[in-house]
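Subject: Interface between my chains keeps coming out wrong

I've been trying for a while to get a sensible model of this assembly. When I model each chain on its own everything looks fine, but I need the whole thing in one frame so I can look at the contacts. Pasting all components below, labels as-is. Any help appreciated, I'm running out of ideas.
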Amino acid sequence: MGHSNWAEWIYVAVVIALLVYVGAEAWNIENLIEHTPQDAEIIKVTAQQWLWSFEHEDGTKEVGELHLKKDHAYKFEITSKDVNHNFNIAEFVVLMDAVPGRVNTVWFSPNQAGEFDIQCREYCGLIHYNMRAKLIVEGV
Amino acid sequence: MSEHDETIYRTSPGRVGKMMAILGGTVIVGAIIFFALGDYWISELSPAGQTFAGITDEPAAPAVAQTGADIPITLDFIESKDFRTLAFNALPGEPGNNPTINAKVGDRIIFNILNAGKSFHAFGVTLNDEGFGGILGNSAVASPNNPLKPGEGGTSEFIPGEPGTYYYICTVPGHREMGMVGTIIVE
Amino acid sequence: MVLELKRARPVWQIMFSTHHTDVGLMYLIFSILAMFIGGAMAIALRVELFAPGAQLIQDSMTFNRLFTIHGTTMIFLFLLPSAAAVGNYLVPIMVRYKDMAYPKLNAIAFWMIPPAAVLVWLGMADFGWYANPPYSVISAPAPAAEMWIFGLKLLGVSSILGSINFVVTILKCKHPDLSIGKVPLLAWSFLSSSIIVLAAMPTFAAALLMLLTDRLGVTGFFNPAMGGDPIAYQHLFWFTFHPEVYVLVIPAIGMMYEIIPRFSRRPIFSHGSGVFAFVLLSIVAFASWAHHMFATGMTFTEKTVFMVGTLAAVPASAMHVFNFLATMWNGRIKFATPMMWAVGGIALFFAAGAGGVVNTAMPLDFITHDSYWVVGHFHLFVFGTIAFGTIGFIYYLFPYITGRMYNEKWGIVHFILAFVGACITFFTQHILGLFGMPRRIYDYPEIPEWVSMNALISVGAMIILVGMGIFLVNLIYSSAKGKPANLEDPFGLGGKYYYPFAQRNPHHGDGGY
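Reply #2:
Try treating it as a single job with all components included. I did that and got this:
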């Protein structure tokens, strides 16, 4: 090295600045997302090979389908009966592993009415590819 | 080792060809072993898996000799279009859905099983009123890890030694909950 | 190398040899074979995924086994052995020693790999190359799973033995007149990656053993029915395999450090920065493993720690990219085949890293986790960077190993097909992931965007296939009938660019000449 490398220092500084920005912004937004509202209705989600079943607060059970209301906050308590699955409603960016022996939570509030897909996002065996359910959001 | 006037090669093309033939032959033998035993490599459950599914070595009921009549029954695995509902012979609401079998102790129930759906299924008789384990005697046709593909079928038989309510189910996890279960009432 | 023998040897003499060039050659041939086998599996997968419904593969169990063994083959049987091949060939020469530090151990480390490959390939397990429990404990069929576990045990031990050899050779056997700071960057890359393996691999060996005893029902480490925690396995696995991905990439970057200065006819911009970046990357590699587990239900603080750890590794990689570009700047570049591969590799490395920054931003991971975005992202690394660097280096070493030149025109055609194919395949996979398609699925519903993108991705994969076919023919034909190479300057750069190490081993008397 007998030559100046100021360009390298500036380049590294720019890279680090960009990364700090990404990290700070991510920290900020994650903080907001993780804050579950108090009035969120709890839905118990049970994943098993290869179907989804749901239980509402009032005891109503649904298998393969979930009926929710638009603009209400819902908190999912997700677990599995056998192997790892992942509860995913892609349209609303709901994503959380269903791990047996453990309850994971994630919340959302659907802001659109209609029919949406629930899919499994963690490899769970033979029919992982078809472990789907329907989310039906009723608008008021 | 240090005079080099012309290029000298590591080995000769003929020898490389011989080595490739030997290795190629080994690969072909390996492929034959793999494909011939294709189903074996994926046929068992691990011991922990068997415990989880409630599968044990001893039969849940002692082996019984046939003292009564033969009861043949044909059961087809069928699925609804959206794969949400599964059943034997007919979908819920239609006649013939999950037929109930009546039998006496000592009768031999002969199951003719066919996978008339698009997915995988397997068959067995159990005393458990939920889940896919506890398959009795020789009643199993295929298994969850080596299931019947669409169009495949098989036969098995079951001789009840005790009166009670037995269930015939699809032993693929989850399929019983989706509707593939029927009862066998034994007096 | 090829020139140091008086007459053609019987093949078994090469196979039983412990000389570093022979062991390197065997690693190379095995890894290229594994690349084609893993590639054939990938093509089978892409043909099946071309459209919804069953095409080539009639059941999902076969599909699941194929993607598991595709991943296992490519990582353990192609990428790791090809790095070992290059290292074995060149590290002793670069440190001016006569062979590796432990030649017999070296040969043993190689010969463990074919039996391990047989175990893995015959069993064809179906649980994904991660082997996550509880599926791999209670649901994955036997004996395939046990064969995979034993195969990977052997491969892990082979990797550790090879790493011991590299570390001792570079640190202890280097020539007394060669200071550690002057050791070439390719040797530094092997030193870094070997130290990472030594620190990280034993954790996976433990996890494999625990998985096996769990399967036997003897223990319940990861089986909730016996009081265990499946997520513990993921920590053990990723503690090894996040650093392991750096083990894969660092030698490829080292290979680019050989190609780029030579074909730019300029010295490396900053040797010191290269060394610093390798060492920093090796250390920071251990700080980021749980970014693979953001969806398992980790707390906010845990995720923040691993996000920061992941971001911290980016400047080190960025320093390498700067080093390459600054070396090429103002150079009289010869865009021969090895150089094209190296430059293409840098471009895709940059894209892969950028995608990785998106994944590590915690909220964005909820969109990309376990979707085709991740598949595109890591393939840009393993294919776009590591395979590109490796293939370019194979072209570079070709004249030295065989004494003949490969066909340059077809080498460039191969590069163009691979680069275009890689862009079509892997960038489209990123977008497909944003549209929500999960990974490891045998079939998918008829969502129009998914259908069209999957078709495009499969076309891209076919383009890569054509290129690889050309590569195979080029390798075989040229090694038998190629034009004899000028070994002083095979690429016509002007001889002095091959300094600082001579092509002939000076230990062999007469200054190597």
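Reply #3:
Confirming on my end. Chain C has 16 helices and no strands.
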